[in-house]
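Hey forum,

I'm writing up a methods section and want to include a predicted complex as supplementary material. The small molecule is zinc ion. I've pasted the protein sequence and the SMILES. Can someone with a working setup run it? I'll credit the forum in the acknowledgements.
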Amino acid sequence: MAEQVVADKLKLSDAPKKLKSKVWQYFGFRDGSPADKAKCKLCFTDVAYAKSGSTTNLMQHVITLI
Ligand SMILES: [Zn+2]
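Reply by user p_vandermeer:
Happy to help. Structure tokens for the complex are below, copy them as they are.
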């Protein structure tokens, strides 16, 4: 898939396994980027998420795309 190729170029790391929400399949982390920002694998936007583990922001971002 083209998206995967781009993701490889950006060296996105998958979210840690401890992050169990399904929404994490759409987000990764880029090496060196702030840990409180997840990068969307679909449009490569940085999306902030709460350290509390809330994925509300991420959910809302994905919902606008799918
Ligand atoms: Zn996105």
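Some notes you might quote in the supplement: The chain has two helices and four strands. Strands lie at 12-14, 27-30, 37-40, 46-48.
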